[in-house]
Design a protein that fits this description.
It contains eleven helices and two strands; from the N terminus they run ααααααααααββα. By secondary structure, it is mainly alpha-helical. Strands 1-2 form a two-stranded antiparallel ribbon.
Amino acid sequence: MTTNEEKTFLHKHGGKLPALLFWVGLIAAYYGYASANNLSPLEVTQQLLGFMQTGIWGVLIFILLYAIRPLILFPATFLTLAGGFVFGPVLGVIYTIVASNISSAIAFYVGQYFGEGLLQEQDDEADGWIQRYTRRMRENSFETVMTMRFIFLPYDMVSYLAGFLRIKFVPFILATALGSIPGTIAFVGFGASVESFDGGIPSLNPVTLGVSVVIFIVSIALSRLFKKKESTALVE
């Protein structure tokens, strides 16, 4: 890269540097706190359970925490399980779907912001596998994102990638909402099956746990079906 090209790149993208530094600082602050207190993500979630059990404020706190979760790379699974444990299977699913879609939208727009201008249009004409998959995501956004949700690819990675590649938001969020439902129901159900938990072996509701296991198996079957379909589409 020549000096002029470097200047042009810095001129175009230099304004993103403060936002990037803030984001890195946010991640460092969370992991610094967790490390200083010797806390795992599960233990952090346990600390948050008390805040989530305070009526309507608990719901708002849960949704807010879930919304900002991708910014600190906090695993979605723990908050999803916590949602089932605190709110039960029905409300837990509703609140988690709302919260997860908000978090997906935030990650999408963060990816879009940092990816703006980095991928040139002429790159789309290349014939490497990355370019082919990029074109597929843009031309078949709804189907591709839904498949990625069904096959349990890392949740936030998919959201950031979709924004970075500038796919359309409406197909992305619809596919996310629909494609995440089986997994959300299964994991909220796992959380709801825990009747009591004091840090040791939890007491489980066998009926709720059994239903969650069945839904999880169905989710795995769907993921295998969609993965096979996606592999075929990429070959073609």
